């Protein structure tokens, strides 16, 4: 590992920014938010891949609560028929029903929470279909191979209105060698 690149700890609230070496066709150019890391493995959601699925076609009434771009996000290849909701409560001191904190004021909102309880209760809300998962030791090994660059997350990353450009912007704000990666292009003649 390059000594000039400092990694954030692998814990909930850390972003995994795909390395330029990661070219598996599934996670190329992705930014993953870690939701859980323990001895049984790790899981997170891809923040910067949206779908064309209308949220109301799968979760009636929830689209109006989401932040722009108001689309269902592709959280990852595991359990694509399941949904994970991340939300920031409207009031900073409240813990609304069905919500549990994850990092900062970002938390998981149970999608079986009655819609009328969720209406007006959240400043930001985003829904993801599926998630990304790693077996015990797998993520640490992938980080060692520079497939992922762990960096601290900002609340704005989770609810970014322009998720398609998130990878470059997160890398750019890191500065140094990671910042340089933000200019990378898969066409070597353009690098």
Overall pLDDT score: 91
Unreliable stretches? none
State the end-to-end distance. Answer: 22 Å
Number of strands: 9
Instruction: Note the main sheet.
Output: 9 strands, mixed
Structural class: alpha+beta
The amount of helix comes to 10-25%
Radius of gyration in whole Å, from Cα? 17 Å
CA-based shape? globular
Count of individual helical segments = 6
In percent terms, what proportion of residues is strand? 25-35%
Helix-strand sequence: EEEHEEEEHEHEHHH
Can you tag this structure with a few keywords?
191 residues, alpha+beta, 9-stranded mixed sheet, 6 helices, 9 strands, globular
Describe the structure.
It is a single chain. The two termini are 22 Å apart. The model has no long low-confidence stretch (mean pLDDT 91). This protein has six helices and nine strands, in the order βββαββββαβαβααα. The chain is globular and about 45 Å long. Strands 1, 2, 3, 4, 5, 6, 7, 8 and 9 form a nine-stranded mixed β-sheet that branches. It has 191 residues and is of the alpha+beta class. The longest helix is centred in the last third of the chain and has 9 residues, at 166-174. The protein has helices at 55-58, 115-118, 138-144, 155-158, 166-174, 176-181, and strands spanning 14-18, 31-38, 41-46, 73-74, 78-89, 99-103, 106-109, 122-134, 148-152.
């Amino acid at each position: 590992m390059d000594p000039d690149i400092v990694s954030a700890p692998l814990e909930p609230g850390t972003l995994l920014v795909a390395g330029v070496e990661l070219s598996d066709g599934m996670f190329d150019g992705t930014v993953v938010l870690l939701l859980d890391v323990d001895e049984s493995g790790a899981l997170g959601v891809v923040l910067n891949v949206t779908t064309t699925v209308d949220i109301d076609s799968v979760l009636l009434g929830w689209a109006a609560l989401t932040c722009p771009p108001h689309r269902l996000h592709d959280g990852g290849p595991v359990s694509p028929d399941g949904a994970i909701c991340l939300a920031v409560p409207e009031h900073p001191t409240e813990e609304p029903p069905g919500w549990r904190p994850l990092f900062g004021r970002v938390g998981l909102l149970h999608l079986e929470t009655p819609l009328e309880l969720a209406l007006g209760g959240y400043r930001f809300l985003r829904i993801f279909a599926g998630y990304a998962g790693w077996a015990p030791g797998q993520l640490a090994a992938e980080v060692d191979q520079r497939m992922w660059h762990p960096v601290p997350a900002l609340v704005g990353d989770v609810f970014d209105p322009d998720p398609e450009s998130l990878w470059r912007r997160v890398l750019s704000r890191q500065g140094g060698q990671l910042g340089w990666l933000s200019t990378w292009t898969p066409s070597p003649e353009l690098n």
